[in-house]
Amino acid sequence: MMKFKVDENEQTIMSQSVFERDSTDAADDAVIRESINNPGTERQQEPLPNREEADNIVEPEEVSYGKLMLQRKRAMKYKTVIKVTSLERVGSVTNRRTNPTLIFYCSTNLPIFRKQHYKNVKKSYNEFKQLSKFLSTSLMETFVPTLPLPYTSYGINNNEDYDKVVFNYQEWFNRVINDPIIMTCEEFAFFIESDFNTYTPISKPKSSKITGLKRKTLKQLAPPYDANIELAEFRPMIKSIYLNLKNIQDKLVKTSKLKRAMVREQNNYGDIFTNTDYDNGNENSLYKRYGKVLITVGDIESIISTMDLATLYDGFEWIINDAYSVKETLTNRHFLMRDLIQAQQNSKQKQENVKKLRSRRDLNPLKIDESLKEFKEIIKYEESLTLKLQRTTENMIIERNSWINWYEKWLLNSIKEYTIRKIEYERKKLAVLERLRYDVRKADNKGGLSRLGRLYDDKDGRIESSQTVQGDSWTGENRVHTVEEVDRFKTTEFDPVLDCNAGKDSTNVQKANVIDEKVAANFLGMSTF
């Protein structure tokens, strides 16, 4: 006889229904035994309850949407606050990248916790993985958030990576504490209260999750009919999001590789100008400065390609992992629906078998008792699956709206961050290119570009930048910038190279073009040098 885990309410409902069935079956048994003891008398042709009547007898109390929302509101009266405070990377290079340590603060009034405040809780990424695996396997009725990556495309030796990882895990905690099903799980409380690097799940997940070859085979079949339109349309939408973002990621990687190849060619092109000497002093200064500007612009393009991966690619990566997890959870619901359909068919078949036994003249009490027992078991099994499917469906409808809201917010934040960083470095690139204007103007005695009839008055040897506090000179709109913004646009990491004296000999110029390895690794997001 199969065993199933149900909550207290489900157990009460099931016990009441079983009691009703026992009373009905006892009456049936009395009729059957009476006909056996008195074979000469005419049997009363009182059939077993048909399928509709049996359903009315054993049908459990429906878990309505309103009752489920009331239960969730009662669970949400408990408050939990988790704040990620810092991130540590220790050990080897591989361990620092793939297994960082998160330090956070937790405050809660949930009764499953032994204390209300936990300070400086340290957990490694491997411990987070074990918790996430347990929750996703045990809690089949909710969408467990997947873990964000423990590293970013910035590299692990810079502040951008530190801030991004801390922000991602803070967002993960915010999603977890807003799910009452996860917060009422004792395993999460044990995770918080366990010591550093000692956490393992206290119990094995009790789940009927189908895995391996059987799962792959069942996924090839058409899903069963779903009367719930929201969930029926939700899985194709999730799969579309997964495939489209995967396609965008592949194109981003190809674009980044092409940009890096272009940067290498551009740097070689700039070296030609910096390594060539000219007779005219002004022209010599112009071309050497032009070569350095080309190399600097190429380095900025390399940084932009890294920014594209760190903002857009990494942001999409979390959505892709989460969408795959949601899709598999919805697939588990389809498997549950198939089990329920199979149980209903078996129940109907058992009922037909009992009817056939009762229609015989030579009744065997042992066979009748065995058939009735099997009929009870299959009805009980069907009832537990019905309760589980009802609760899973109602919870997934609620979690569906929450997941869509998170998806829209996270997607907009990723695109916003990508756009802002792109604009920032494009402005820096413009500021670098504008530093050539003075050298171009003094290339000849008439101020350069004299063929265009443009006048140049060399009073202070400086030309005003197009990006000022009053706004941008190339647009008619009034976009006022703060002093900090203008300084950030005009200041680049390559200023020492550009500001060196272009009139020095070629050896000094080549030395000026060399960037320190550690600084370059910090700029380009590389982890070691």
From TrEMBL:
Pfam families: PX (PF00787). InterPro entries: AH/BAR_dom_sf (IPR027267), PX_dom (IPR001683), PX_dom_sf (IPR036871), Retromer_complex_Vps17 (IPR014461), VPS17 (IPR053055). SMART domains: PX. It comes from the Eukaryota. Residues 78-195 form the PX domain. GO terms for cellular component: cytosol; endosome; retromer, tubulation complex. Keywords: Protein transport, Transport. GO terms for molecular function: phosphatidylinositol-3-phosphate binding; protein transporter activity. GO terms for biological process: intracellular protein transport; retrograde transport, endosome to Golgi. Component of the retromer complex. Component of the membrane-associated retromer complex which is essential in endosome-to-Golgi retrograde transport. Belongs to the VPS17 family. This is Vacuolar protein sorting-associated protein 17. It comes from Kazachstania africana (strain ATCC 22294 / BCRC 22015 / CBS 2517 / CECT 1963 / NBRC 1671 / NRRL Y-8276) (Yeast).
